[in-house]
Design a protein that fits this description.
Structural class: alpha/beta
Organism: Streptomyces ardesiacus
Order of helices and strands: EEEHEEEHEHEEEHHHHEHH
Family: Belongs to the ROK (NagC/XylR) family.
Radius of gyration: 20 Å
Protein name: ROK family protein
Helix content: 25-40%
Number of strands: 11
Strand content: 15-25%
């Protein structure tokens, strides 16, 4: 069952490892109210659900009929469960996100992965039959895939986790998922920062420091950034050959460091493409800072709704 009143306002929640963004969104996509609060990531799943409920109450308005939540981790929208997650949010794996939040707010809840929700805003409504390949490169590497205008979820909601594809550039490097040699281990912001030091550069506190050094001509910083960009471009180019998307979008904080990154990524992407796709080029997202909450607010109109648990039942 999806939202029974498509013209009513919906609450969109974007849950990340550091903050929760909430918005009350009208049927026309207008943001009517906003709220942000820190994510109590080290306090466990129950504290995070409580914080999500508090954020929803802060923006709730008359006539609000549902909540959509876009959350970090592998989210199964059918069961409303977090099927897998890193330790960014302690104890997040196995959380009954849909039912737990519905029980706390009294509103039905639809839920999905945060990157997939943001990626959906790149599609032009229900009549858009586009194939989309979407990568989000930041603290980690996430992604989403749409075929014929429909976001793919896959078994247990795992479709689109591009950061855990094998990457030759990451050979032997440990990944956050526990395996080795995955794209995230060389292409995410912390991975680029760490690789700069491995190459002999001065240790840096964050990616922006590495980017500043590269802009000043530091060869170690330049090499680390271009390696991460090339690895991402190669993976996306190979996926483009397999999936045949009409659009490729690369979002997140890492691409925002500038032309050095984009030039290396696009060159590596183009080098992988088969002839029919050689006009395809990755581009930045067209949505702004509201993409995730707007995508979350759209979820109750397309995904199953989870209802509050019966009185006395565990949430």
């Amino acid at each position: 069952m999806t939202a029974p009143h498509p013209d009513a306002p919906v609450i969109g929640l974007d849950l990340g490892g550091t903050k929760i963004a909430a918005a009350l969104v009208g049927a026309d996509g207008t943001v009517l109210a906003r709220h942000t609060r820190p994510t109590p990531a080290t306090e466990g799943a129950e504290a995070v659900l409580d914080a999500l409920a508090a954020a929803a109450r802060a923006v709730r308005g008359p006539g609000t009929t549902a909540i959509g939540v876009a959350a970090a981790g592998v989210i199964d929208p059918v069961t409303g469960t977090v099927t897998s997650a890193t330790d960014t949010i302690r104890g997040w794996t196995g959380t009954a996100l849909g039912t737990g939040l519905a029980t706390r707010t009294g509103l039905p809840v639809a839920c999905d992965n945060d990157v997939r929700a943001a990626a959906a805003t790149e599609l032009d409504g229900p009549d858009d039959d586009t194939g989309l390949l979407y990568a989000a490169v930041g603290t980690g590497v996430g992604g989403a895939v749409a075929a014929a205008g429909r976001m793919l979820h896959g078994a247990a909601g795992i479709a689109g986790h591009l950061g855990h594809l094998p990457s030759p550039e990451a050979d032997g490097l440990p990944c956050t998922c526990g395996a080795t040699g995955h794209l995230e281990a060389v292409a995410a912001g912390p991975a680029i920062t760490a690789h700069c030091a491995r190459l002999g550069g001065q240790p840096a506190d964050r990616l922006q420091t590495v980017a500043r050094r590269a802009a000043g001509g530091d060869p170690h910083a330049t090499a680390a950034i271009t390696l991460g960009a090339r690895a991402t471009g190669r993976v996306l180019g190979g996926l483009a050959n397999a999936l045949g998307p009409h659009r490729v979008v690369v979002a997140g904080g890492v691409p925002r460091i500038g032309a050095l990154y984009w030039d290396a990524l696009r060159a590596a992407f183009a080098a992988e493409l088969m002839a029919p796709l050689r006009g395809l080029r990755p581009r930045p997202p067209r949505g702004g800072a509201d993409a995730a909450v707007l995508g979350a607010a759209a979820l109750p109109r397309t995904l199953p709704l989870h209802q509050p648990a019966p009185t006395g039942a565990p949430s």
